[in-house]
Design goal:
By secondary structure, this protein is an alpha/beta fold. It has two domains: 11-197 and 369-440, FAD/NAD(P)-binding domain; 200-273 and 308-363, 3-Layer(bba) Sandwich (FAD/NAD(P)-binding domain), CATH 3.50.50. 30% of the residues lie in helices and 19% in strands. The protein is built from 13 helices and 19 strands. The chain is globular, with a radius of gyration of 22 Å. Bound molecules: flavin-adenine dinucleotide (FAD). Flavin-adenine dinucleotide is lined by residues 49-55, 76-79, 84-86, 89-90, 93, 95, 98-100, 104, 159-160, 192-194, 196, 376, 411, 423-425.
Length: 443
């Protein structure tokens, strides 16, 4: 692939660092994302709900193959800019390198990031052994690709409050209604909604979180350098044994905090969060042959496990003098430290020992996808009795949310068809391969 600088906006204009929704510099005025009023009363053949890694990857693939598809496509997301969620979560944790290799990104050019790094003298940001890109390199590459997407003007800020399917109601049976009460119709909808609305709090922590809402936080509520920053040197307990726990522990220890990482099991070291065979045809064919969706769910659990930590982060965890690792440990109670009730310092009783003077407990306990947690889908789920296994829909081979026609899923939502890699970056390509012909049929 040849790397072309965007024709209208240069890489410098895009800016190198900084984050989030304030980054209006991402798009020039004429290319600003459009608000939901632009969609009002329109009939749009293909709508993607979710402008994250999956929604953007699918759109870019379709538009590269059929540029005129831009006239028939809308990506809607609650954020003003695409990939906001991705940017936020990587920044919040202080993630420096991706876990996955450089060949996994948002466009179909496998070597896109590598060539971008070479072109910009940034090959030192590709880490051995699999050329994992630095988070900044990945993001800068994505920004360049987003200018390509912006040229098509398909991205709209629109938070879907309700999705209706009027079966048999002509060519555009879906009706999408925003939180601002704007509506439009579509003939086909792809749900690329991620899993971030499904933060998992283990049952034993629910009460402690209610009791100490400012101190016991899910990782998605915490930012290493954010408002909730503690004075350097404070003691922070992280619960979890996956990469989020490891990355947070490293980031906080580097900022001078004393970290105690508590995991129910022994910590596991793995480069990837699922075995790479799940990207190949053999494992996927065997998975497709399993007709019992509960068995498929178990296969996914076995292959993704309860989380693991990459070798480089594990090395830091083992060597940092201000990180204590408590594997095979459970928390039995959380209470205020008696000497400092006003400062909200906590005392954590564990099966190993009691930790006092804790300023934060961060639950790096991940996400547990459950379709029922997406309010805008509630009506559809109950009216059409969408079958679920542990909250995951039993999609058909075309990734349709049976029995609703032309409602598709990509990302974690499609796990029961795409397997353990579904929610990851390469899962978008696997999904697109299944969706391609169906989408062409709507153009
Ligand atoms: C810190 C972190 C690091 C990761 N690193 C890697 C990695 O190195 N390699 C890898 O392969 N995977 C990685 N992953 C896993 C995965 O690739 C990411 O989570 C990725 O962001 C998933 O993409 P997505 O599009 O499915 O979801 P998201 O990026 O979460 O996007 C979903 C979008 O849907 C929108 N949305 C949801 N509901 C609505 C609604 N009602 N109306 C409008 N919009 C809505 C949201 O606003 C959001 O923008 C990582 C995950 C995390 C948390």
């Amino acid at each position: 692939m040849k790397i072309n600088q965007p024709s209208v906006i240069s890489h410098q204009q895009l800016g190198a660092k900084g984050s989030g929704e304030s980054e209006t510099l991402l798009l020039t005025d004429s290319r600003q994302p459009t608000a939901d009023s632009h969609l009002a009363h329109r009939n749009i053949p293909i709508t993607i709900i979710g402008g994250g890694i999956h929604g953007v990857s699918i759109a870019l693939r379709l538009l590269r193959e059929i540029p005129t598809a831009a006239n028939c496509l809308a990506i809607v997301d609650r954020h003003p800019l695409p990939l906001t969620q991705w940017r936020r979560k990587t920044e919040r944790q202080g993630m420096i390198f991706l876990r996955s290799p450089a060949v996994h990104h948002i466009t179909p050019d496998a070597l896109g990031i590598v060539e971008y790094a070479e072109h910009n003298n940034r090959t030192d940001e590709l880490a051995p052994p699999y050329s994992q890109p630095s988070t900044q390199l990945f993001w800068d590459f994505c920004r360049m690709m987003l200018t390509e997407l912006a040229a098509y003007r398909v991205y709209h800020q629109f938070e879907v409050a309700r999705l209706r399917w009027d079966k048999g109601a002509g060519k555009f049976p879906f009706r999408l209604i925003s939180t601002n009460n704007t509506g439009f119709r579509s003939s086909c909808v792809i749900l690329a909604i991620g899993a971030d609305d499904c933060a998992y709090i283990p049952p034993e922590f629910v009460q402690w979180q209610r009791q100490y809402p400012k101190t016991v936080l899910h990782a998605s509520q915490f930012t290493v350098d954010g408002k909730n920053k503690q004075g350097s040197g404070s003691k922070i307990v992280i619960v979890g044994g996956g990469l989020t726990a490891g990355t947070l522990a490293r980031s906080l220890s580097e900022r001078g905090h004393h970290v105690v990482l508590i995991a129910r099991k022994y910590l596991k070291t793995e480069q990837f969060d699922f075995p790479p065979i799940w990207l190949g045809p053999k494992a996927l064919a065997e998975f497709a042959n399993e007709t019992d969706f509960r068995q498929r769910y178990d296969i996914i659990q076995q292959n993704r496990g309860e989380g693991s930590i990459t070798p480089d982060i594990m090395e830091t965890l083992m060597s940092a003098s201000n990180i204590d690792l408590y594997p095979k440990t459970c928390i039995c109670n959380i209470a205020l430290t008696e000497e400092s009730p006003s400062a909200q310092r906590l005392q954590i009783e564990t099966t190993r020992s009691t930790i006092t003077d804790v300023s934060r407990v961060i639950l790096a306990t991940g996400y547990q996808f459950d379709l029922r947690r997406y309010g805008f889908l509630k009506e559809l789920i109950s009216k059409y009795q969408i079958p679920l296994v542990q909250g995951l829909p039993c999609l058909d081979g075309d990734l349709q949310l049976y029995p609703i026609q032309n409602l598709f899923g990509s990302g974690t939502i499609a796990q029961l068809q795409i397997g353990p890699a579904s929610g990851n970056i390469p899962g978008a390509n696997l999904a697109y391969e299944r969706l391609r012909e169906k989408l062409r049929g709507h153009l």
